[in-house]
Amino acid sequence: MKKVFIFSLAIILCMATINAAIGVNAEEKADTAVSAIYSGGPSYLVSSTLNDLKSSGFNTLIQWSLHIDTNGNLRMNDEEICTNGVYTGLPAWSSQWLSYKSGNTSIQRLEISVGAGGTTDFASIKALCSAGVPDSNSNLYKNMLALKNATGADAINLDTEDTYDSVSTINFCKMCINMGYSYITLCPYTNTAYWKAVKDGLEAWRPGVVDRIYLQCYDGGAGNNPGTWQNNLGMPVIPGLWCTNTAKPYYGRTPVQVQSQLTAWNSSYGIAGGFIWLYDDIRNNGLSTADYAAAINNSFGPATPTPTPIPGNLVLNKTATANQYVTGETPAKAVDGTVTNNSKWCSTTDVGAQWLMLDLGQSFNISRWIVKHAGTGGETTDYNTRDFRLQKSSDGNSWTDVDSVTNNTASITDRTVAPFQARYVRLFITNPQTASYNRAARIYEFELY
Ligand SMILES: [Ca+2]
Questions:
Q1: 125 and 211 co-located in one domain
Q2: Is residue 50 within a helix (H) or strand (E), and if so which, with residue range?
Q3: Centre of ligand 1 from the C-alpha of residue 334, in Å
Q4: Ligand 1: centre distance to CA 280 (Å)
Q5: Is 314 a domain residue?
Q6: Burial code of 134-153, b = ≥16 C-beta within 10 A, e = fewer?
Q7: Is the pTM of this model over 0.70?
Q8: Cys-Cys link to 447, which of 176, 251, 356, 370 (CB 3.0-4.6 A)?
Q9: How many domains does the chain have?
Q10: The domain spanning residue 96 has which CATH number?
């Protein structure tokens, strides 16, 4: 993917028609194939794109491209977007992103894509992440968290086209997951060995965390065979095609051609969806966003089983209860997959034990547990849970300790235990924090693997 210049598009884009919103029920769309679109300049700078994309039929929007400076500050294309831990981008863009998945919309998932051809973003990542996973004190961590809070992005998408260094890439991805991004997705066009190393490294760390591979099948990736890549990387891919364009018209595909190609690939290989490169060209050339979305969606027909693997976190969105909670800060918020926007379970007091109980519905093998404390949500680390235990039960009444933590001050607890089986699991807190004031348990996420 080549870097595009966004400013020349703005005048044309301002004249574009805003389509009426067409609602798509999120539950219905949950079982369909991935239909994604990459967007460069327009969805950053032009507010008229909001309704066009929400009514398009695409279920995934990927903003491209995020650039990382050597000091850990961030730019979106050529615009400064996060500096020294503060979102410094356009306020309107943040509010637009936070509304993409609300109301009548086909968009269910938002991703931010890092890197581009001819840039040095992954050289910056190598410089900043080679020594280990950056912690919450690093400028890169603070900026990526500010971006998460400003956008509500679900995933970080890797468009590595320089400095193919899997170790630092993996560390960068772990940092992003630690702060609350739900998934890592890959967007290769070449270098299978690098992508396999990144995927395998992350999967070994947290199964299910790499849940999508977008395969570039245009430009430098024009010769890519989805079946070959699927075999090499071990999961279905989502091939991408370039819409009609003036930059490299010989790679351009009409909606009819997109549908024909994806249908053939799906028939041959069982691919997981399709994506369109690039929204800028759709807008710039007066094409129909909805026609391209339909071309993908029609390639898979109704009710194609979801290509998304079951996430590794066993308690994500499972039934949670607690012995106490503050209004609005419910037990469910400890298992909703996000640490942003104050999404925590908070107890009413520190008197006696405070506990959070999960019913997994059936017995599961469990060998790892993670607790994301107050610090992950941006609160003072003095509120991080101090003394607590992991407990198991077969009936939800009688409990056995599995693991115990005392004198904790870290914002994230990530512990491996001897594998055990349980249907009911409890986080049992005996000292909710270090600070002597405002004493309460504050759990932004509780995860089991
Ligand atoms: Ca939460």
A1: yes
A2: helix 49-54
A3: 4
A4: 34
A5: no
A6: bebebbbbbbbbbbbbbbbb
A7: no
A8: 370
A9: 2
A10: 3.20.20.80
